[in-house]
Each structure stands twice: as structure tokens, then as C-alpha cells.
Automatic annotation (TrEMBL):
GO terms for cellular component: membrane. It comes from Naegleria gruberi (Amoeba). Transmembrane segments: none annotated. The keyword Nucleotide-binding applies. It comes from the Eukaryota. This is Ras family small GTPase. GO terms for biological process: signal transduction. Keywords: GTP-binding, Nucleotide-binding. The keyword Iron does not apply. GO terms for molecular function: GTP binding; GTPase activity.
Length: 191
């Protein structure tokens, strides 16, 4: 029998943000490298899993929870935050309101996670729609800086920066979970 392969440690990442900003499309683009033009369908919840080799040469399983931005699903979102170890707050660069609503999602994470330091990333999606842009890159950067979190602009349509963005949050979630002992270092799992 071949030696039993170690199970890839799970990295639970929550994708959140207002409705119709492209959360579901980002998750699908990351997992399957496709963008399907579709009528807006407010997802309740969905899970995507993808294995990825990170900088330490070890394979991890990104467990991506796609959540609903609508206020009626707040209970589900709160559960997702409790189980999450890393967060992507997504807004659309062509929807001012979705940018203004970032603060509410930040506060929700802070409320649910208490003083715990968790990796959070701000993501301005739909950067392929440059002519309709209402939030500048600088505004996104400056909000991220204010919270001390990282910032990416992405397009779920063209795939621009989508993989880089998920890998970046995964690296930080991995570091944070190793530090807190929620996952074990590769060298400690031999025995
Ligand atoms: N042009 C463009 N449209 C997008 C992009 N991402 C999502 N969309 C469109 O925006 C709408 C909402 O996307 P969806 O992923 O369902 O949003 P969610 O509610 O945040 O999950 C859909 O009609 C998508 O086709 C993007 O990066 N560029
Ligand atoms: Mg959705």
C-alpha cells in the first residue's frame, strides 16, 4: 500500500460584502477559472474548496464560504464569521453604496471575533468596468490603510488579480493558524 498522504490542512475563508458586488463570481472564477454572465441571484450560502500549494511548499485546502450580503441573512453570516479564520470584504468599484457598507462588515467581524486578530482583506471588484468607476483605487487603499488591512482590486470577469488575491489571504490565514496552533507545522506531524 502506498504511504497514506497527509490530509491538506483546511483554511476557512469567508467572502462577504454587499449584494451584487461579485462575491459568488469571484469564488467561481477562483475555483473554476470561468465567468458566466448571469442574472443576479442573491446566494444564501455556498462553499468552494480548492487545494493550493503555498509558499512553504505544503498543500493546503482553501475552504471558501460565499455568503449573502442581504440583511435578512445576517444570522447565517454571523455563524460564518465565527467559523472563519480569514475574511475578504468585497465591494464593487462601480457601486458607491457597497463601498460605504464596508464599515458595517468590518464592525461585524470585530464584534464576532472580539479582540482576536484575524487576517482581513479589502477587495474592490469589477475593475474591468473602468469607465463606470465611482470609487478610486486611492480611496480603496486609504480605507484599507485606515483599518490596517490589505487591499486588492479584482475582476471576476477577466480573472485579473483573482488568484493572487485568494493566495494572499490564504498565506496570511495559514500564518495566523500556525501561530495560534489551530494547524500544526509540517515538521511536527510526522509522528
Ligand atoms: N463586469 C463585471 N461584472 C461582474 C463582476 N463580478 C460580478 N459581476 C456581475 O455582477 C452581478 C452580481 O454578481 P454576483 O457574483 O452574483 O454578486 P454577489 O451577490 O456579491 O455574490 C452578476 O450579474 C455578475 O455577472 C466583474 O468582475 N465584472
Ligand atoms: Mg452571491
Amino acid at each position: 500500500m502506498p504511504p497514506k498522504k497527509d490530509k491538506a490542512p483546511e483554511l476557512p475563508i469567508v467572502v462577504m460584502g454587499s449584494g451584487a458586488v461579485g462575491k459568488s463570481c469571484l469564488a467561481v472564477q477562483y475555483q473554476h477559472s470561468i465567468f458566466e454572465e448571469h442574472d443576479y441571484d442573491p446566494t444564501i450560502e455556498d462553499n468552494h474548496r480548492k487545494e493550493e500549494e503555498l509558499a512553504d511548499g505544503r498543500t493546503y485546502c482553501l475552504n471558501i464560504r460565499d455568503t449573502a450580503g442581504e440583511p435578512e441573512f445576517i444570522g447565517l453570516l454571523e455563524n460564518a464569521i465565527e467559523e472563519g479564520e480569514g475574511f475578504m470584504i468585497v465591494y464593487s468599484i462601480i457601486d458607491k453604496r457597497s463601498f460605504e457598507e464596508v464599515v458595517g462588515f468590518m464592525e461585524l467581524i470585530q464584534k464576532k471575533k472580539g479582540g482576536e486578530e484575524v487576517p482581513i482583506m479589502l477587495v474592490g471588484n469589477k475593475c474591468d468596468c473602468e469607465s463606470e468607476r465611482v470609487t478610486t483605487t486611492e480611496q480603496g487603499q486609504s480605507l484599507a490603510k485606515h483599518y490596517g488591512i490589505t487591499f486588492f482590486e479584482t475582476s471576476a470577469k477577466t480573472g485579473e488579480q483573482v488568484k493572487a488575491c485568494f493566495i494572499s489571504i490564504a498565506e496570511r490565514v495559514k500564518e495566523s493558524m500556525l501561530k495560534s496552533g489551530k494547524i500544526k507545522d509540517k515538521n511536527c506531524t510526522l509522528m
